[in-house]
Design goal:
With 118 residues, the protein is mainly beta. The protein is built from no helices and eleven strands. The strands form two sheets. Strands 2, 4, 5, 6, 9, 10 and 11 form a seven-stranded mixed β-sheet that branches. The termini are far apart.
Length: 118
């Protein structure tokens, strides 16, 4: 089972930037799809962005232009750069790894909380 550890969350003022990291254990990182999700209080978890093993990216329509997902396969780490933060970005952000070699196998991190103050 792959272990995912998110970091980089915290309190940031509206308009500021923040970069989240997701460090993965094991050797399957480079053969996986990484996704960042978020869950705001009282709301369902939603996809923020994803990146394929080859680097192709996908973003939630409402977040395009403010968020950038990237990955460094040599470091087994994925990132989510968040710019121009808004109070509605306040949520717990989760990292997800989907194994491309085993259908249906995925792992979740424990989440990192981001609070954006107005």
């Amino acid at each position: 089972q792959v272990q995912l550890v998110e970091s980089g969350g915290g309190l940031v003022q509206a308009g500021g930037s923040l970069r989240l990291s997701c460090a993965a254990s094991g050797s399957i990182f480079r053969i996986s799809v990484i996704g960042w999700y978020r869950q705001a209080p009282g709301k369902q978890r939603e996809l923020v962005a994803s990146i394929s093993s080859g680097g192709s990216t996908n973003y939630a329509d409402a977040l395009k232009g403010r968020f950038t997902i990237s990955r460094d396969n040599a470091k087994n780490t994925a990132y989510l750069q968040m710019n121009s933060r808004k109070p509605e970005d306040t949520a717990v952000y989760y990292c997800n790894l989907r194994d491309l070699l085993v259908l249906g196998r995925e792992s979740w991190g424990q989440g990192t909380k981001v609070t954006v103050s107005s």
